Amino acid sequence: MQRLTKVAVIGAGVMGSRIACQFANAGCTVLLLDLxxxxxxxxxxxxxxLFQKTCDAKPSxxxxxxxxxxxxxxxxxxxxxxxxxxxxxxEAVSEDLSIKKKLFSQINRYRAxxxxxxxxxxxxxxxxxxxxxxxxxxAHFAITHFFNPPRYLRLLEVVPSPALxxxxxxxxxxxxxxxxxxxxxxxxxxxAFIGNRIGIFSLMSTLxxxxxxxxxxxxxxxxxxxxxxxxxxxxxxxxxxVGLDILCHLGQYLYDACPKDxxxxxxxxxxxxxxxxxxxxxxxxxxxxxxQKRMTQDGTxxxxxxxxxxxxxxxxxxxxMPFAQELEGIRDVKARYLKLLELxxxxxxxxxxxxxxxxxxxxxxxxxxxxxxxxxxxxMRTGFGWEHGxxxxxxxxxxxxxxxxxxxxxLPLAAWVRDLKGERFYPIxxxxxxxxNAPSIDKVKIKTLxxxxxxxxxxxxxxxxxxxxxxxxxxxxxxxxxxxxRAVDMATDSYKGLLIANxxxxxxxxxxLKLGHEWATDKNFKALENxxxxxxxxxxxxxxxxVPVVVAPRGMTFGGACELSMHADRVVATAETYxxxxxxxxxxxPAGAGTKEMVQRIGEDAPKKDFIFxxxxxxFTNIAMGKVSTSAEEAFELGYxxxxxxxxxxxxxTQWQQAKQTLLEMVAFKSYIPPVEQPxxxxxxxxxxxxxxxxxGMFAGKYITAYDGLMARKLAYVMAGGNxxxxxxxxxxxxxxxxxEAVLSLLGHQQTVDRIGYMLKTGKPLRN
Amino acid sequence: MQTAYIVKGCRTAIAKAKKGALRAIRTDxxxxxxxxxxxxxTPQLDPSQIDDVxxxxxxxxxxxxxxxxxxxxxxxxxxxxxxxxxxNRYCASGIExxxxxxxxxxxxxADCIIAGGAESMSQIPMGGYAPAPNYQLTQNGKASYxxxxxxxxxxxxxxxxxxxxxxxxxxxxxxxxxxxxIREGKFKASITPITGEQIVLNDQEQQIAQSFCFDxxxxxRADTSLEALAKLKPIFQQGGTVTAGNASQMSDGxxxxxxxxxxxxxxxxxKPMARLIAYETAGVAPEIMGIGPVEAIAKALKKSGxxxxxxxxxxxxxxxxxxSLAVIKQAKLNPEIINVNGGAIAxxxxxxxxxxxxxxxxxxxxxxRGRRYGMVSLCVGTGQGVAGIFEMx
Lengths: 768, 393
Known about the structure:
By secondary structure, chain A is of the alpha/beta class. Chain A contains 30 helices and 22 strands. In chain A, helix 2 links the parallel strand 2 and strand 3. In chain A, helix 14 packs across helix 17 and helix 16 packs across helix 17. The relative contact order of chain A is 0.06. About 0% of the residues of chain A have low confidence. In chain B, about 35% of the residues lie in helices and about 20% in strands. In chain B, strand 11 and strand 12 form a beta hairpin. In chain B, helix 3 packs across helix 12. Chain B is globular.
């Protein structure tokens, strides 16, 4: 198979529908089938309803809502023959062996000869699935186990049929990796594979251990969430998310299927789960489980938690622990693990026991569930959202400490770990812990030439220079600007081009607000003006410098970082890029040349005689609402990335290479022609009149505050190029002056200072 | 001064904008069809005897641009001998033309005029394609002149204390009355079927010709309920009371009447139906445009010399339930005689057409009931109101 263009997904439940979406994201056309509706209803009503649920889900399963056009819905009664045109047929029906087997025989009747058939079973061993299959079917079969939500959880467990041809498997793995953005982990033919085996163990053992320590549900979730590098949903909220019935089912299943597990008693669903089940409190799907979501009068949601003593729901409580501030202050989770174990009294003992059981268990499961311990780490990171896998954590706390914990609990220690005799699991070189985003550019080739607190300038081979941000949240400060200026000088003198890329999960959350807030509080407008000017200048340099500039945003790329990417020759993003001009949220307008850039783009894009104000209105609204793209695809629609020159990759580990390649292509045969600065058309009073009528409507409709209105009028003024009486051609510098003026005047308002302060303190925007 | 008579009228059924039967039919096409119908009904009239065609239209641009009335006349009369004018007083355009035609005839400037209005809200958005508010106004604190109509309804609801529940009840009654009227065939007499052929794609993406005939009201909902109306979210103002359910429906349609002098009526041996005995306009603050009818009604009554009690029926355009209720309250109108066959909330409001459509609806009902005086009144954007009083003959 050369290329995958058509896929069939059978089973349109949560997983099937969402997997179909991920294939649609990868550019495939998908046939999504489910059972026909009964009782005389239109046959496809069932599949429509199921798929609609996925379309309504947030965060979206699709990069862009229009991608749903790539998915054709059908029913298994009429449309199964159509799978003949598909190159990959994926089964995601309910976890019932007999149903699956029956479906396989139907698939076998219609499938194209060389089509791949895979099953999304979460735990049925492959020999059982294939018990009655033909040899030829077996030669085209694999288990491909996705994790929910498949767009965001990157783990894909693959169990190839022993008869699957090598090139088919290679194709599957390649497509999954590069087109679906998956981290492929090979699993063995054992129950629940790797992720769920360890994940369910971890969840169930936490439930059990927590009970010994008499901690409340919010307390456990505080301790086992972000504090220890786990998702915010921690333990109980994750259980609610999974569904308590499913959790019980999985636990019981693993208990029965793993008689050799020494600590398998953890898998047995505890009494509280049974009681919740009996009340039909199954978690999120029934609205209550360990937590109950309630809406307050002003429409915000609150999570009441279950009191395990009397099974009532209690209002949210703020967790206060004496060590909280100190621990949360340690930004690097790697440095936090050891501290957790060393906490005094009950909490320290809780962590010790938790880690002891986890480490002993994962060590004992190699090689039973996988030959490579790294697969366990990978599975927990990419399937469960842990920042580090168990063995990586072990490296963080040290080999001996892990052994001591296990001994303390009198648990057996796997021989292969004992034989490490104090060595690390991962060599130091890999100590970045296989950051899933880490660039796969040969690390040896990277040479740091210059560095300050915020950023470094690196040689990344083939005559390409890179600026790597590494400040807190990759904030853009004066140090970053200095690095960018230096890099432009160096690249202009002696390199082919400039890359701006880093390996963090989030490219940059924008300009350093902390400093801005201090200056604004002190009314140091000189410093504010200078910093704004510096940012504008360096972005203009990047845009017009004689060598090409490629920016590689990923994850959160806000405000100044969005403006930075807007000034690149090319943007090579990852699919999961969340970018936008969010300045309004902190009481500002984009003044890092971003407003100027939007005005210029509108002029460039609009055909003559077009009613251009609609385009201005769209850009204006996006900025005034601080709209952030939910994918790189959506960044095209918002106008922050441009289709004809910018692009994105699905697999983040390929981003650097792709970005570098893009840059090198631009300079091949010395063909790069830098852009030439051109005058920009502004519309003056007529545009202000147009936009201000809209602002007035928003204010009268009570959708914006008076201060929002004031900010919006400043933005309108800048976008219009001031109150000129007629359309006029102006220089970029003229618009940049207006940007700066607007921002400085806003910084003189207490509301803006308050907005910035609130954002710094809470991470949320203030509407004042 | 010679008398101006309204002789006969016809209209399209009113279609839902964007998804209704007329969504893809040009305004001039369905309007010309009405003119052809009027001519057919009056074979004794030579088209060259028609002095003018006056078409009200609230958004005269795009397909409704270039003095659309002239194109309607050219197509509908199949003659280039009759000139035409497009008239814009937003929602009152359709009655404004009837008033202008009456005035011209009374002044002896004409003997036979086709007057009415036409609008496709499917094809031209509210506010038009290229709105351009005046910079100076926005700088002088008058940006509110450009409020969308929903905001003005909110302002009226607030100022005159019209509750959400009262608005929803009013809307509910409008649907009930409209459904009843349709069941009783009340609109049949004046609705002219619009027929034609459209080229569409079938399931295999092949072009096929599809003939259509549009002759039934589309907008009223028999299945609406107070509960369903109460569930709708306010759409113009956060925490507001105006919803899609208690506002008029965006729609497409056209309506025309013959206005003739006594001489012409006699010559053609036609029976006049009614005459316009007073027509008044009034201005109010643009932010509360919905209250515009109050002053216009008072002025029209005064001009006609009639007492309020003399009115047998009133068509008060339901731009919004909020403003309708405020007008009823402020002008002390008798709710029993208002919109007896439902209003724009149920039946639709094709802006420039509505004034003429309501006139036809009013005259038909007066005739049915054998009553004498009726009034059509509408609120108009940017703070205006109109009221016209008709006398049956």
